[in-house]
Design brief:
Layout lengths: L9 E4 L2 E2 L50 H12 L15 E8 L2 E10 L4 E11 L5 H12 L6 E4 L5 E9 L7 H27 L4 H7 L3
Amino acid sequence: MAATRRLPSKTVVASTTTPDNKVSDNKVSDNKVSDDNVPDNTVPDHTAPDPTAPDHTARTTAAASARPVFDAVIAFLVERGYIDANARDDNDDTVVRLDGSGENGAWLLWIASDEDTQRCVVYSTANFMVEPERRTAMLELQSRINVTLAVGNFELDLDNGQTAFRTSIDVEDDRLSEALLTQLVAANVETFDSYLPALEAVAHRGTDPVEALAAIAL
C-alpha cells in the first residue's frame, strides 16, 4: 500500500458544500459524487451512533467540551480548511459526511462520533449497491481482503447491498488527537481506494473474486 497519506479533497457538512481543498501529495480528483449515484445517504445502520445518547464530558481535562470526539473532528477539518468554522450544524453532533475520492474513483466518506462510548468511526461507502445475485461473490472478495488487513475491515449489508470499509478508534480515558484522526482517516481512504477496482469488477462485471483481487496492483 502506498505510503502517501490521503485525505478528502472536498467536504460536505450538514448539506453545506465548501471550496475544494487538498492535502499535499494527495492525488485525488475534485469530482463530487452526484446525488443520483448515491444509493443511501446514511451511515450504515448497524453501526451508526445513537443520536439520543447523552453527552459525556472528556475525562482528560476539566475544561473539555461536552462532546470531545465530535469537536475534535470538526476542529481537525476546520484547521485544514475543509470546512468553514461557521458551517457546522449544531443540531447534528454525531456524523460528518464528506466527498471521498482517489486515484480509482469517488465515494462517500463518513466520520461518526459516539460520545457515550468515546469512539470515532470512519466509513467509506461505495456509490453503488451490490445486486442480490452478486452478494455472495462480494462477501468472498471482502473476506479474502480482510484477512490481509492490519487495520479496518470491509463489510456488506446483505439486506440492501451496501458495501463499505470501516476504521475506528476508542479513545476512552484519552483524547482524539490530530495525529490519531489523521491516521484513522488516511488509512480508510487509502485502503478503500486501493481495493475499489476489485469491488467494482465483482459487483458490475461478474468477475471472479480471486481474479478481481489478483488484477489489482497494491
